[in-house]
Specification:
single chain, mainly alpha, 3 domains, two-stranded antiparallel sheet, 13 helices, 4 strands, about 5% strand
Length: about 350
Amino acid sequence: MRYFGKVPLHLTPVTTRGEAALPLASVDSLYLQITKDVEAAGKLLPARAKQSEGRITSGAAKTLLANVYIVQKKWADAEKLLKDIVTNDGYSLMPDYNDAFSGTTTNKNNQESIFEVQFMQGSSGYNGSIIYNFLPRPLTAAEIAPIIGVSNPQPLSGEGNNAPTPDIIAAYEAGDKRKDASIAYVTASGALTENKTYPYIKKFAKLHSLWGNTGNNWPIYRYSEVLLFLAEALNEQGKASEAVSYLNQVRARAGLAASAATDLRDAIFKERRVELAFENKRWFDLVRSGTAVAVITAYGNRIKANPKAYYYPNGAVPPNNAFTNIKELYDLPADEAALSPYF
């Protein structure tokens, strides 16, 4: 729903092709059903201490529901759930930010992990390849070897995604330990740019033994986000002095001083940006804060003004119409529309 808005709402199993097409449900009815489902899940699932490692917990369900409440601006409901998680569910911040993320075989489902997608290196079919999708291109075997650690590194070509932008690099405050834990640099000698040194996402670059085959997990919810959610929910209810204490727990782990911000809402969103960098949170934060179009438009203007700073090859420029048609939601898929009379 966060990607498409109104979508079909199936509540009974589909047994025939004719039952597959449904009218688009309203956003309110979708939220109502999501809330009902997750509330039920939270009551049925075991707590972290009693659950098998890697499986979903009541704490994960409560965090998801708190996220739903925050998107809906139901601050008091979110506060109640989040305080329950903080008080009763046994999560805590890893002392070192580096250790908040799993390795290929170690540190999985740690004390900060509320839910993470499980991957397993090897031939079982459960492996991942996260860092291979994120690395800049092209890289020689020698250039990639120190990043991944395999004994048979191979050159990478094609297109890499999710390179840290100059904007996110500049977003870290001086002395923020998360910057070096999250971003590193590699030289791509075959690149077409003038500057051949590129940033990459270090927090997911874990050493492993098999080429193209990783086992580090992907974080969905971490305890630091619970603290930042709680700070936001409290602040939006006028409880700034209580809110800042949760914000400062996250900042302290990053090696930063307590927040002295006069605009606490802005400070919380800035903290989310760097604490949760590259974890697929930023776009949804921009949408729910009503700033997506303005922020992406300004970002596009910076790219157009200085393409080289944003890793464009020498002489290359973005098209004139780039960043001029920004939407908060995807259009409904054409292939699906062809199969449904409802959209």
